[in-house]
Amino acid sequence: MTTTSKPPRVSNKRRNSAHPLHRLLDYGSQYRQQIWQATTFSIINTILDLAPPWLIGTAVDILVKQQDSVLGKLGIQDIFWQFLFLSFLTVIIWIFESLSQYAYDRLWRNLAQNIQHRLRLDAYNHVQELDSAYFEESSTGGLMSILNDDINQLEDFLNFGAHEIISISTSIIILIGGAFLILPPFISLAAMLPMPFIVWGSFNYQKRLEDRYAEVREKVSFLNSRLANNLTGINTIKSFTAEEYESARLAGESEAYRRSNIKAIKLSAAYIPLIRMLVLLGFTALLFWGGMATYAGVISIGNYSVLLVLVQRLLWPLVELGEIFDKYQRSMASTNRVMDLLDTPINIIRGDISLPIDKVRGEIEFKEVTFAYKNREPVIKKLSLHIPAGKTIAIVGSTGSGKSTLVKLILRFYDISSGTITIDGIDIQQLNLRDLRRSIGLVSQDVFLFHGTVAENIAYGTFDATHEQIIAAAKITEAHDFIMQLPQGYETIVGERGQKLSGGQRQRIAIARAVLKNPPVLILDEATSAVDNETEAAIQRSLERITLNRTTIAIAHRLSTIRNADCIYVMEYGQFIESGTHEELLDKNGVYASLWRVQSGVS
């Protein structure tokens, strides 16, 4: 049965309490110049966009006052020249408005792409640095939701929402300033009275929507986790005829996502009608009191018409403010999730001692090593082990005895609880992590091949390898013959996780990959446990060649594959209970001898 783990959650200790917008601005500090440029052009565009009402008011003023109009007072007496000048000014304003729109649109959208690109790469690179324990508590779907969906939400807001907020703010300031310059104070106050309530309502809605959209982002993570997990385990679902069961589980996750969205929609949908009513109050006050003031001669007909059009122009942006805040809250909820991921501490600290791969001898030593997975009893208990350079040792034991954990500790997928692990006498925690891992080649039972060609998978990690080197590595592992029988040979696409190949074929490609890497230390973790006898024999012949004069650690259930090891260790409950060569262990007639008799059929 396929199961789904919940997406990563960040503990309260790690969670940053700063507002997500502040966190985003701090993160995007290198783009401040671009932000200021985009903001400036947004303001310029808004100012120019508000010019048409003034042009209309000026035209009305020319018709009503003629030589006494605003342009007439500036020295243009002839009506023809007044309208010609006004037409020329209109063309200039329109051109600069178009240019400023092109500028702000390009700047904001490029900014969105730049931040999105950097944020996704930084988040992904940070995830690569996290230890294996983090991934045990996380799900692939949850991480995919953060790295893809959440960052896309942020892009959507920066593309359009940022300009709209700046535009509305600028329009309000110009309207308020213009009203107080033109209208008597009591009319201006009446017209502007709804504004504080609009601003207060907007921020109040923002706070109330914040938690609801955080819940929406959490639910979509669960949904993505379910989808990713089920698609990965589709063959298991089919083999257990669990399609209806999984469909029902997916329906449950989708329903939870739908309900959380409905809760957010219920609140956000009420915003626009309320804003309409508040704007109506201001517009009606201006319509009535401004009209009466115009009739009394306190303000001109032109100024009155300008204010009416400006208020009407402000009506629709304010109505759209609800949608803008909706985008804003969605993006801030996503920003919090991405920033929380970036704030996840890296527990595997890189050492600063360099160890060039050509200088590695491969002597490995465990000294009183103890290790326990999170919230579990120790898997390794004060274990000591010395592996001479260039020798082959094997570790056998029952499932859960701690064999594979040793591999993870050598590669520093986890850090030990106590004790010391050294390579060539240097504590691996002090070694440069990349140098450590470059010096070790791992071939595990669970082979992972990337979607790509056979050649690309063999050369993975040795990206500068030539085609001749790739073929040579394949021949050493006896993989060349079956590769040449594939439809496109080395250019055959292996499919996701190598699903187009058999288990034995995948295993030999993995060994060829390790051969091409040519590491001083080779680790074989159950490398032949899932293959048939013929493939095992081929792999065994390959291993005899590639382990020569190379430090090799072989973990195996099949004792026939490790009988020629220089030393064999029997492991139980995190400790070694027997050690020696194959013949020595048989003479001891202990656990190893018992296992050998079972596997070889000797009574």
From TrEMBL:
<keyword id="KW-1133">Transmembrane helix</keyword>
<dbReference type="InterPro" id="IPR039421">
    <property type="entry name" value="Type_1_exporter"/>
</dbReference>
<keyword id="KW-0813">Transport</keyword>
<keyword id="KW-0067">ATP-binding</keyword>
<dbReference type="InterPro" id="IPR003593">
    <property type="entry name" value="AAA+_ATPase"/>
</dbReference>
<feature type="transmembrane region" description="Helical">
    <location>
        <begin position="186"/>
        <end position="203"/>
    </location>
</feature>
<dbReference type="InterPro" id="IPR003439">
    <property type="entry name" value="ABC_transporter-like_ATP-bd"/>
</dbReference>
<dbReference type="Pfam" id="PF00005">
    <property type="entry name" value="ABC_tran"/>
</dbReference>
<dbReference type="Pfam" id="PF00664">
    <property type="entry name" value="ABC_membrane"/>
</dbReference>
<keyword id="KW-0547">Nucleotide-binding</keyword>
<dbReference type="GO" id="GO:0005524">
    <property type="term" value="F:ATP binding"/>
</dbReference>
<feature type="transmembrane region" description="Helical">
    <location>
        <begin position="268"/>
        <end position="289"/>
    </location>
</feature>
<feature type="transmembrane region" description="Helical">
    <location>
        <begin position="79"/>
        <end position="99"/>
    </location>
</feature>
<dbReference type="GO" id="GO:0005886">
    <property type="term" value="C:plasma membrane"/>
</dbReference>
<feature type="domain" description="ABC transporter">
    <location>
        <begin position="364"/>
        <end position="598"/>
    </location>
</feature>
<keyword id="KW-0812">Transmembrane</keyword>
<feature type="domain" description="ABC transmembrane type-1">
    <location>
        <begin position="36"/>
        <end position="330"/>
    </location>
</feature>
<dbReference type="InterPro" id="IPR017871">
    <property type="entry name" value="ABC_transporter-like_CS"/>
</dbReference>
<dbReference type="InterPro" id="IPR011527">
    <property type="entry name" value="ABC1_TM_dom"/>
</dbReference>
<dbReference type="GO" id="GO:0015421">
    <property type="term" value="F:ABC-type oligopeptide transporter activity"/>
</dbReference>
<dbReference type="GO" id="GO:0016887">
    <property type="term" value="F:ATP hydrolysis activity"/>
</dbReference>
<dbReference type="InterPro" id="IPR027417">
    <property type="entry name" value="P-loop_NTPase"/>
</dbReference>
<feature type="transmembrane region" description="Helical">
    <location>
        <begin position="157"/>
        <end position="180"/>
    </location>
</feature>
<keyword id="KW-0378">Hydrolase</keyword>
<keyword id="KW-0472">Membrane</keyword>
<dbReference type="InterPro" id="IPR036640">
    <property type="entry name" value="ABC1_TM_sf"/>
</dbReference>
<protein>
    <submittedName>
        <fullName>Xenobiotic-transporting ATPase</fullName>
        <ecNumber>3.6.3.44</ecNumber>
    </submittedName>
</protein>
